[in-house]
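User: Fold both of these, please.

Assistant: Here is the first one.
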Amino acid sequence: MSYRVVEWSTGTVGRHAIAGIDARDDLELVGVWVSNPDKVGKDAGELAGLDRELGVRATDDKAALLALKPDCIVHTAMTDDRIFEAVEELISFLEAGVNVVSSGPVLLQYPIGVVPAELVDRIRRAGEQGGASLHVNGIDPGFANDVLPLAMTSLSQRIDEVRCYEIADYSTYYQPVVMRDIFGFGKPLDETPMLFQPGVLSLAWGSVVRQIAAGLDITLDEPLVEKVARIPADHDLDVVSCHIPAGTTAAVRFEVIGTVDGVPRVVLEHITRTHPDQMPEWPKPNRGDGCYRIDITGEPMMSVEFNHNGENGDHNVSGMIVTAMRLVNSVHAVVEAEPGLVTALDLPLITGRGLCAPRPVSTS
């Protein structure tokens, strides 16, 4: 069965989502929403950087797109700086009877214990009333720290700790708002950016820790524990998102820790550099400039490092692709799920069904 899909935004993730929707024979792109007036009327193929038009023109008219009655919206709009506005937007889609797969707000990846129960109930009611489902996911929070670690735990005899890492060089990551305002790169060390205000990390990545705990059937101590280290640049740096003067924040390491009786059991750790030479004593990828790593302490001891990079070699480009494709490839499962809020614990195995490239035809 083919499903009719609207892509919501055409930014760093959305453009790859359009290409991914186009690559699937079982999805039909019927609409594209854009926030930039300059993009209105442009063909989706052009906005996605494809070499052809797709016959779908972008619009900023929400009502017109909902009137198309799509089966699903692939929502990849920026939400980090407009969390509750974005939540209202997602609820309105559910109330209109449209299923949604979204890259944010990330706290909805597994919101139980992260946001007020009243908001979780409201999202569920909207889905039930509209007969639609909402699934928030991607690569992180998402596959690299929900599906992957939980699948690994199926091999365990005893689990002492599950630790999920993102280890990455963000120098080629283009998201100025995220880099400057949220992470605080290029800002003085005595200025606390949004992400490191008390409790914010537990909102942003607490869903990861809580979902793994739910998958392992353990009850965590409250609240989650947050640890942060910020390191200054030893010389001026220019990365694609911002200028980082010497002495300002250039590398960060943080943990969101779920404990049981004071003992760490589930940990989310991020190590983010803006130059490969920074903090060599911190963990680094075994290869490339970025990775996701899962360490499970127990019996047996297990570790998996997941590397990715685009065809051009850039892991930040491929990071946008894998985020987009986790959503696009989940459309069928989410549309067919029970109405309401759907997490990775609720979905069947998601695969890249139908995406194997055809073998080239021999002319010899």
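And the second sequence with its predicted structure:
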Amino acid sequence: MFKTARKALLALLFAGLAGPLFAADLPEPIVEEAPPQAVYEQPVEVGGWYIRGDIDYHKSTVRGIDYMTYTVDPCNCTVTPGTRSFDFGKLKGGFSLGAGVGYKINDHFRTDLTADYWFKSNFNGGTSDINGTSTEVSKMSALLLLANAYVDLGTYHGITPYVGAGIGGARVKWDDVYDPNTTEFNPGRSSWRFAYGLMAGASYCLTDKIILDAGYRFSHIQGGRMFDWNITSSGPGFDRGINTHEVRGGLRYQFGGNNGCAAPVVAYQPEPEPIYTK
């Protein structure tokens, strides 16, 4: 009995001493660092409606002016019409205000409808005949309506260059054409004409809704009636068309969708659990 008890006590002592010794020899578990969190940007859908406002300074060139004259044939007393041209005709620079509504289709394409009112520009011209020369003055204003399409060429350091083209019409209004040195004048005319424009410029995001736009536009307005006949038997007169160079600046406000200025949405994968290995 005592031998059995002694053996049991020795067994317990051996187990108590051997446990720490064997535990010291076992390798400790290694905790591997979790891989870095994957960060990715969710794509932002670009597109939506916008409105715009513009102001410009423009310089227009009249391509030439023709007018009718009438002479009496002394042989049979008939009136013979003829055509004469202004010796020169120049328009001074002027300003315009414009507005429009458009739709941005994607990162690279957008369209809009614009209306620009050209304030009056002073006109100075001159004619000559057998009786001498005369000075002709007037003023011209116009309402230009265009349907436009643009290609945005990518964004570089926050600046997006673009090119575009537009087609539409213009209502050109000429005031009375008169010689300030006499009482002669010809009533001015208003008429709708075909017009087109070619644009280039760049835009810059001021906020996620507002874009600053600056650029150049060349516009051409087809020729048409400039003034009517008067009692001195001259007229009507026709201008051969108007070419205009415009320096433009304005703002676009995106009130629907995204104009491409909003910061991309950053998303994170869930943090993984630590991995333990032996």
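Residues 48-254 form a domain with the Porin fold (CATH 2.40.160.20).
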